[in-house]
Design brief:
It is built from 10 helices and 14 strands. By secondary structure, the protein is of the alpha+beta class.
Length: 350
């Protein structure tokens, strides 16, 4: 392999690099072209212009990215930990606005991700070189906004994303599954990495949401390849995740199916619910439970078919009929033995 830099262009290319066992040198990665935040805003006020609200939200995105950077390098979001050379990295970020509808394209993230790559290489010692590369790419995907709005999008978007997976396998969303799975396996073995990655995602995705909230009167937004409708924009603007109108329940159940939808960074969990008197499927965002509770979930589902577990979840349901609509896993409690059996015993990575 030559000493030349490998110029990154997207997730699909990275997946190929990860499959090449001869490439394990993080120093070869060149972030000058990717990641890049690309936002297309359509609406009466957005014709190659930038409003004061949008300008402020872009500034806030950089602020949140700084906090995410601090999580990776120093294990805290306290910006006082940043040194002069850290702060100087963010001076390179600019946003270019195109004519016509307002296309916002970020530039200058390369130096920041050169530094993040070095932080992962030096600080996540428990990871293999391949796991470190995958972690860097996942962080870059988060910075590009690939997973920022999952908790706000409903069934229509689930169907749309399924269509994308089938019809557009060259889309970046369709090439993150293997990368995210490598990171998940690595993060569960390192509490430091798990907390840093979760913190990075929390801060950076808050920055993404602020951008959408600043253009609440837009007709449509294409955010790093994800189409947001007026309904989606309104939900994000008013900070109404799809579980906001829910009721919380705690039940001891036998898990029947666990499925990792890694492209979308969520996990679905199915079980018979005494509350609703039928099998239901709920979900949670990867990283939400933390390492210990993830291990408890794994123990309850994978290691013994005679174990059940206490689950706390929020559910949206029809108040008149009592029919379950959707739910989100909040927490995992104690393991119970001899209660119920699995009907299915497979775990799917998608």
């Amino acid at each position: 392999m030559a000493d030349d830099k490998i110029v990154l262009t997207g997730v699909e290319q990275i997946l190929g690099l990860l499959e090449d066992s001869s490439i394990d040198q993080i120093e070869k990665l060149d972030f000058s072209q990717w990641p890049s935040l690309k936002i297309k805003i359509e609406g009466d006020k957005y014709h190659g212009t930038i409003t004061p609200e949008l300008a402020k939200s872009l500034y806030d995105f950089v602020y949140q990215l700084k906090r995410g950077y601090a999580e990776i390098k120093y294990g805290t979001s306290n910006l006082q930990r940043l040194r002069k050379e850290d702060v100087a990295l963010f001076d390179s970020i600019t946003f270019r606005i195109s004519e016509g509808c307002s296309d916002v394209i970020s530039e200058g993230l390369g130096k920041i991700f050169d530094a993040i790559a070095q932080c992962v290489k030096d600080g996540f010692s428990e990871m293999t070189p391949k796991q470190k590369m995958a972690t860097i790419v996942l962080l870059a995907s988060i910075a590009a906004g690939y997973f920022a709005f999952d908790s706000y999008l409903g069934q229509q978007h689930e169907q749309e994303m399924a269509r994308i997976d089938i019809e557009a396998q060259d889309n970046d969303y369709a090439h993150t599954s293997e990368i995210a799975e490598i990171v998940r396996q690595a993060a569960t073995s390192s509490e430091r990495a798990d907390e840093a990655i979760t913190g990075f995602r929390r801060h950076v995705e808050a920055g993404h949401r602020n951008i959408v909230q600043s253009v609440s009167d837009a007709d449509r937004i294409n955010y790093s390849g994800r189409e947001l409708t007026e309904e989606d924009i309104e939900r994000i603007t008013h900070d109404r995740p799809i579980t906001s109108d829910s009721t919380t329940f705690t039940e001891v159940v036998a898990l029947e199916h666990v499925k990792r939808l890694i492209v979308r960074q969520i996990v679905t969990v199915s079980f018979y619910s005494p509350q609703f008197d039928r099998q239901i499927t709920i979900q949670y965002n990867m990283g939400h439970l933390g390492t210990r509770k993830e291990e408890r979930l794994k123990e309850a589902f994978f290691e013994n078919t005679h174990k059940s577990v206490e689950v706390e979840y929020s559910a949206v349901f029809n108040e008149q009929t009592g029919e379950f609509i959707r739910g989100t896993l909040v927490s995992i409690g104690d393991i119970h033995t001899g209660v119920g059996l699995h009907e299915e015993s497979e775990d799917e990575d998608e």
